[in-house]
Amino acid sequence: MSVQGTILVLDGVSTNRIMLKVQLTAAWYHVVQGEKLKGLTALVRRTRPDLVLTAQTLPDGTAADVKKLVMNEPDLVDVPVVAIAPQNDKGARLRALADGLDDVLAHPFKDTLLLARIRSLLRARADTQDLQVNDGPQSMGFAEPETGLIAPPKAARVDILTHTARTGALWHKALIGKTRHNISWHTQSNLQGLLSGSVPDAIVVELDANPSGLNILADLRSRGATRHTVLIGVLNDNDASKASEALDRGADAVCLGGFCAQEIQLRLENQITRKARMDQMRASLKKGIAESWIDPLTGLHNRRYAMRAIGQIAHQAVRTGRGFAVMLADLDHFKAINDSFGHASGDLVLTEAATRMKNLLGTTGFVARIGGEEFMIGASNISRPQALKLAEAICDSICKAPFHLPDQHDPIPVTISIGLKVSVPQLWSQGNDPETTENLLKSADKALYAAKKAGRNQVRIRQSAA
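^ diguanylate cyclase, sequence as received from the core. Prediction below:
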């Protein structure tokens, strides 16, 4: 998205394009113009618009054709397309929504409403782009390649918020026969009833002269639980100023001219489909981030996580004045296990060793696999005697119970060597910071080397990084 925001205006009538350009340029948007479908593919690839405003009818096509063309461009699949319909043509508005357009504005419209709708759609697109890395979550291996819009859930939860119980019941009855979603309703005075249950996928809010509806929009958008819920406002009149304020307060869409069940149903389908896509992207990104800290074989944390965790433990020690421990552990003669029993058996030994160490450590700290058969253990709020006892327990957890392999009749013995470094705030030099992560690991590594040299299957502790 450009700093200004690039808006593509499509209209076969030059005066309409000029008027829109004047309005949008005055609001500091960069405007690109076109008049028909022919050549549009090259135009969108060259200009990469952040939003498209198109007349519902072009000389050689329709707004629906524009939407399909933009959707066919993988890098622009999230670009919103808004149709501009003729004056007072409700049928045209409903057709545009049915065709999957992101919104419809009907002539004549005020600058305030046009700009509020643009701001709302650009915010939504920015949210989508925030979930992408280098134009797509798959670029870091966090997701499957983009395939366009995702089908919405079979039955989303939709709540209606109205001023009176009578209106809520009427809207509920009208929507029940037009949508596949689960519909319930509450009065706005009973917002707690809505928030006390499971989080709705969409909420339809009645707006009128009473400011409570606008305040509810802002409240719902600010809450963590409903931050990603679809919010649709319904105005009983065509008040552009109030519609603009609703959009700026967090509404995803506003229906003008009173409740229309068909329009609500179409907007719900479009918005819930978009929400489903966003939810999947968020889940994919969270999963990818989590997996970037995990060793895929053992399920332990990896070196990347361990290095950051040790730094955090050290900083925590500065605040609390409590000691912490760093251990480097290495399975003894692991190459011989791979050579004698095969790499698959070696992997089983690694996995079982990881499980034993993780179960023993519990919530005391973390265990990470940082190399082939090498592990790092970190523990906070621990004294030197406690750390030594923990290291010896880890050593015993490996050596005292042999490892069973699927193709071997007899279990095989496995041992581990551990180098321990304990850092205690009381021993730090006056006025000096604790040792760096690099020095802590050097100390633990030297202790590990000493344990190996002394015959393996034991713990050695080092007092300093010298």
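The longest strand covers residues 324-331.
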